[in-house]
Amino acid sequence: MRAIWLLFVFSLMVSRVVASPRFFSSFDFGPTFIGYQEQVLDYTDPATSTVGRIDSTANPVTYALRGSLEMYWDKTLLGLRSVFPVYAATVKESWSFNGSLIQTNDLTYAVSTVDFYGGYSFAKRFELLSGFSMAKAEQNRENFYVNGVRQNIDRSTETILSQNVFLEARGKEGDQPLWFGYQVGLLYPLNVTTTNTLLPNFQFSSPGYTYYGRGSLYYLLSPDSIIEASLGYRWLHYDGSNWLTIGSSTAKWPMNNTSELTISLGWLYSY
């Protein structure tokens, strides 16, 4: 009898939750200014057998559309959000060996993500979220010059696929019609797979981490419609792989750091 009663109470709670969510949708668009660096500390020059350090630097720019859908049941929420790159500018990437320039090439860089998450709203100023994220980063390189000489090398595409977990806090401060919001988070990769079309037999992996933050200004247009202006920052680090040998070929995925500064304008709607 007790079990039947508990099941009845649980069914009422579930039916209430399922029957009465409030939905929030958001869309925003804007540029992301990227600082990308790779580093190899134990590279051996095949011509001189000199062991030294290779560094690369590039500053790509991408434009992306971001969207989210959230469902609130009182203080509990579930959400889905994504980032979809619309345009990636081509920039120059430079490579140096022990401080001397050895190579340049063109680079485009774009990242797409999908996040699934749940959370709890403790107060207007503080919500705690956790979830699962899938990301795909794609780097395209072409027009290779080594020591100023054009190389007959095919275009290369490096693809980084990652599955991640994250923990995030966010909140809002101020009164309508204008108020401020914040978002900070940490992300940890569970699995990372990196491939390169110029190295078809190689597959790399690496541990890493990401932290990010975002500040937003909101303005109420109507009871259900809000416009938003945001400034966000993200730092992503991968340790890189060990040297791998397949046949007569040896390669590694370098240690790399990515910094991203994003400016966006958006619209939020509740229903």
List keywords for this structure.
271 residues; elongated; Lipocalin; 76% strand; mainly beta; Protochlamydia outer membrane protein domain-containing protein; 1 helix; 16 strands; 14-stranded antiparallel β-sheet; 7% helix; two-stranded antiparallel ribbon; disordered N terminus
Structure write-up:
The structure is a single chain. By secondary structure, the protein is mainly β. It has one domain: Lipocalin (Beta Barrel), CATH 2.40.128.100. It is 7% helix and 76% strand. The chain has 1 helix and 16 strands. The strands form 2 sheets. Strands 1, 2, 3, 4, 5, 6, 7, 8, 9, 10, 11, 12, 13 and 16 form a 14-stranded antiparallel sheet that branches. Strands 14-15 form a two-stranded antiparallel ribbon. A hairpin with a 2-residue loop joins strand 10 and strand 11.
What's the shape? elongated
Mean pLDDT: 92
What is the CATH level 1 assignment? Answer: Mainly Beta
CATH fold name:
Lipocalin
Beta-strand percent range: over 45%
Class derived from helix and strand content: mainly beta
- Oligomer class: single chain
What is the alpha-carbon Rg in Å? Answer: 23 Å
Number of domains: 1
In N-to-C order, the SSE pattern is HEEEEEEEEEEEEEEEE
What count of helical segments does DSSP give?
1
Beginning-to-end CA distance, first to last residue: 40 Å
Q: How is the biggest beta sheet arranged? A: 14 strands, antiparallel
Q: What are the low-pLDDT stretches, counting only 5+ consecutive residues below 50?
A: 1-16
